[in-house]
Design goal:
It is an enzyme of class 3 (hydrolase). InterPro entries: B-gal_1-like, BetaGal1-like_ABD1, BetaGal_gal-bd, Galactose-bd-like_sf, GH, Gly_Hdrlase_35_cat, Glyco_hydro_35_CS, Glycoside_Hdrlase_35. Keywords: Glycosidase, Hydrolase. This is Beta-galactosidase. Its EC number is 3.2.1.23. The protein is an alpha+beta fold and 592 residues long. It folds into 3 domains: 326 residues, TIM Barrel; 121 residues, Galactose-binding domain-like (Jelly Rolls, Sandwich), CATH 2.60.120; 90 residues, Jelly Rolls (Sandwich), CATH 2.60.120. It has 12 helices and 32 strands. The strands form 7 sheets. An 8-stranded parallel β-barrel has the order 4-5-6-7-8-9-10-11, surrounded by 5 helices. Strands 16-25-17-22-19-20 form a 6-stranded antiparallel beta sheet, with no helix packed on it. Strands 15-26-31-28-29 form a 5-stranded antiparallel beta sheet. Helix 8 runs parallel beside helix 9. The termini are far apart.
Length: 592
Amino acid sequence: MSNFEIKDQFYLNGRPFKILSGAVHYFRIHPSQWQDTLFNLKALGFNTVETYLPWNLHEPQEGCFDFAGIKDVTKFIEIADQLKLKVILRPSPYICAEWDWGGLPAWLLNQPGLKVRTTDPRFLAAVAAYYHELFKRLTPYQVTQGGPVIMMQVENEYGSYGNDHSYPRAIAEMMRAEGVEVPLFTADGTWPEALDSGALIDDDILTVGNFGSAAQENLAVLADFQRQHQQKWPLMCMEYWDGWFNRWGEPIIRRDAPEFAQDIKELLEVGSLNLYMMRGGTNFGFFNGCSTRANDLPQITSYDYDAPITEWGAPTAKYNALKAVIHECYPELPQEQPRQRHYKQYPTIIADGALDLTTALHSGHFTFKNSQETQPMEALGGGYGYAYYETSVKNYGHPEKIKLVQAADRAHILIDNQTLTCQYHETLGDTVEYSGTGAEIQIGILVENLGRVNYGPKLNAPSQHKGIAGGVMINNHFHSGWRQVALDFSAEMVANLDFSAELPNRNSPNQPRFYHFHFAIEDFSDTFIDCRAWGKGCVIINGFNLGRYWSVGPTNYLYVPAGLLKPDNEIIVFETEGKRVDQIDFSAKPIY
């Protein structure tokens, strides 16, 4: 069997091994593209691929585990092995990664007072149950058992969150108990406070750094930290940030390719490298994270990251610059031409069905949960997407007032099935007036979870509850008697949408609406859905959630991998802002 050791250098089977690695998240790339993406990584001369593993993706409901399709991490590892790539795994409970709640599953929020990323026994018990299922799938792929996995991470940037070393030590002990034999590491920002707080160097667990510039200066700090602890390990940047993520309503962030390439060259003179990202991919579904500010800022569907390989799989100028640097530094390494993908602008398609939100929900195909008080989204289902709340109130014949308490993140208030207002950021929770004409007034509230924070002090804050956690006040009292339902846009949920009835009126709808399309093709290429004419919502193709679109930009497209297409396709668009979606236009390139 093979072995991987950490001494003064990395050693693979007794020979020095320079790690040239790139991050590729299997869960952000359609499985049909895993092999091409990993081939393009190897074509640079790289020898390793790194990936996070998001807990909330693999255990969406407590005790229910899913490792199929885009979640099939073992298949991803096997493809890497076939290409003779080594693998670094980061199966920490918390991953950050601009992913909803840093990968922590929303169902943890159903346990009042539970503290994540601590030694709270309830949290550690939940991690242990997940690890028991996870590692039985991972440990057979360790290099010690003939597989490609050479290292695994303990927690993630814990030094930027806490300094209770008993917590990451408990995680490491769980991993060892589940059969992890390869070396473990911690990854933190390269400043002394973060390293002191997050590293387990005295436990003989490798310390590596994360940064995106000034490579030699940052690695010098890491080397000094090792010396203080009488260690002389190889230096490595586990996350060299070659680009950055983006948020709704802000300009795209890009990085100059020559400057990036020069810094990589300087890094390789003194240490090993994991490039974050090699290909960023897409935040499919509702798993995008959120930056924590005074007003939390959700991240966009595209996770392009300005990486060497684009969201849609195309090598960039940054890829070519990186390839040149690797050849200059290691001319003996074989390089190849990268594989290219094909993109097509399919003909425009016309809607063949439409369904108002309230009509759909009252069709008999949706099961509401009744309660006196509104329930947070996590108590209604998976905790992602949308939740709809409804009640009826007596009409007293004059304007009434309504106020949402502890609602997150964005809410449409409907009065008698017509949108009264949409509240977000500064207006969310404001008191608004409403009135009706009947003896009773129907109140509906659609609340969207735009993404839980993935980094910082708010990870344990009550704000991570989505939906309406506090209640609804009507005329200064909390109203009781609610019906509510989660709208997660799973394949099972969209199958309950009945488009057989006559199309609604052709006027612009004054409530959220579903639109239905059929899309027949004979050839299969990647394509892009043009969202410029729409407001806000999401798109489902053949039961797969492509993610959110939003007119605030900076992106105005949704990427459609060819692997999702088939001869007869079904597309459902959910539009919340009253824009008509009578047709879908495609593009052969992304639209900004």
